[in-house]
Specification:
The protein has a single domain, classed as Calycin beta-barrel core domain (Lipocalin, Beta Barrel), CATH 2.40.128.20. Helices cover 12% and strands 55% of the residues. It contains one helix and ten strands; from the N terminus they run αββββββββββ.
Length: 179
């Protein structure tokens, strides 16, 4: 029978090693490299149909020296080719950051000037990317992307927050494609 002090010590030791063990299981950034295409369901306050809207997605992650990566993503709202379709593409370069599996852009913006702050991190099989900006009223907007490597490609989740209130959520599945 294990006494309370021994049980508490075992639990404390297990918890102290948990971050180390979790970090050991993080995938290298190269496991995320590839071209992924798919679709997603968006839930927003301004969605046209029952609060939901479909999106087509295209994500490309490529290596960049030294030890960084280039992340490019395209979102198409509406059908590609429709005159009302809205296409938005974004490309960012990330370099190694303050710790393993944390990445930042070449230069950071100044939030007090309305410029964006960004960073990425890997946790297990998921690449998280965060974008934050402050508007002229001092309100902040945070965008959070999670891109999880799966057997067939990638699961993507996106959330946008305005001063802590979620204003959009997008979830989708993407397949890895060969260029």
């Amino acid at each position: 029978m294990i006494g309370r002090p021994t049980r508490a010590l075992v639990i404390a030791l297990a918890l102290s090693w948990a971050p180390v063990l979790a970090q050991a299981e993080d995938r290298p950034i190269s496991d995320f490299f590839g071209h992924y295409v798919g679709s997603a369901m968006a839930k927003t306050e301004d969605s046209r149909s029952l609060g939901f809207e479909m999106r087509d997605l295209d994500v490309i992650i490529e290596g960049a020296e030294p030890g960084g990566f280039v992340l490019s993503w395209t979102t198409i709202r509406g059908r590609d080719g429709d005159k009302d379709a809205k296409r938005k593409t974004r490309t960012m370069f990330f370099k190694p950051g303050v710790a393993p599996n944390i990445f930042g852009p070449e230069t950071q913006g100044d939030p007090a000037k309305g410029e964006e702050v960004a960073w990425s991190r890997i946790d297990g099989d998921t690449l998280y990317t965060y974008l934050m900006a402050v508007n002229e009223r001092g309100d902040y907007e945070m965008q959070m992307y999670s891109r999880q490597v799966t057997k067939d490609g990638m699961a993507l989740d996106f959330e946008r927050f305005h001063d802590g209130e979620r204003t959009r959520k997008v979830s989708g599945k993407l397949k890895r494609v060969e260029d």
